[in-house]
Amino acid sequence: MKHFLTILSHEVRMLIVSPNTYIAGVAFLSLMGFIFTGILEEYSKAARDVSPASAFFELYWLPVFIMVPLLTAKCLADERRLGTIETLLTTPVTTGEVVLGKYAAAYLVYLAFWGSTAGLFYILKRFAGDAHLIDPGPIVGGYLFVAVSGLLFVAIGVFTSSLSRSQSVAGILSFTMLVALIFGGRYLGSASWLDREALSPLKSAVEYAQVSQHYLDFTRGVVDTRELLFYISGTVLALIFSILSVEAKLLHS
Predict the structure, then answer these.
(1) How many Cβ atoms sit within 10 Å of the Cβ of residue 55?
(2) Contacts of 252 (CB under 8 A, 6+ apart)
(3) Going by fewer Cβ within 10 Å, which terminus of the chain is more open, N or C?
(4) What residues of the chain score a pLDDT lower than 50?
(5) How many Å apart are CA 6 and CA 2, to the nearest integer?
(6) How far apart are CA 233 and CA 30, in angstroms?
């Protein structure tokens, strides 16, 4: 993995100059600023049982659906479309180094975007007269959930990018898989037909993969090692499939 850092630094530079990154950044900050303003307006009208941070991170899925496809759709799909992936792999680098370098770069930018929202809470703390609006527990838990879940979300984006030469197709596939993971699990978890005794193993698996429940646990200060294992193992599998997909495409090209 001696070339990993070289690829990582190159990919970070490419993301910094990519229009997709700025589109994702503007869309993300505009959306999160709008959401944060709306939350504060609601709290100014009447007191709420939960902190603004809990309400803010509850909508984590909205920016995920926008950011992840924009950050990852190009990483492997464009390399295959332009034919540069073959040239890159003729150098002393492995497919794993290429995939991991591109993944790490996208993940770092993903974290940077979310990290920029800390300014919203700083402004709230600086100008709000009510100290109860700033509860450090949900804030820390929310950012921890974002960091952990982002490992899998970005890995899914990289995987879908490895499946196609088209950025558009990769972005649509990424969006679809993220929706299925986040909302599909929630739908299946409430499905009555899973209550049958014969389907209890499947119901347990669906409950284990409930991303929304994981968010609630993190913001309440409950960090379950099983949930960490879910995201880490899912990330590893997605990256392995990405590497295998790139190598399979190269063999058939």
Answers:
(1) 18
(2) none
(3) C
(4) none
(5) 8
(6) 33
Cβ atoms 148, 231 nearer than 8 A: yes
User: Two tokens at 183?
Assistant: 């909302």
At residue 252, the pLDDT reads 62
Residue found under tokens 């190009």: 74
For residue 153, which of 79, 94, 72, 74 has the smallest C-alpha distance?
A: 72
Listed in sequence order, the residues at least 6 apart from 148 whose beta carbon sits closer than 8 Å to its beta carbon are: 218, 227, 228, 231
Around Cβ 51, how many Cβ atoms within 10 Å?
Answer: 21
Report domain extents, the chain. 4-251
User: Is the model's pTM score more than 0.85?
Assistant: yes
pLDDT of residue 95: 85
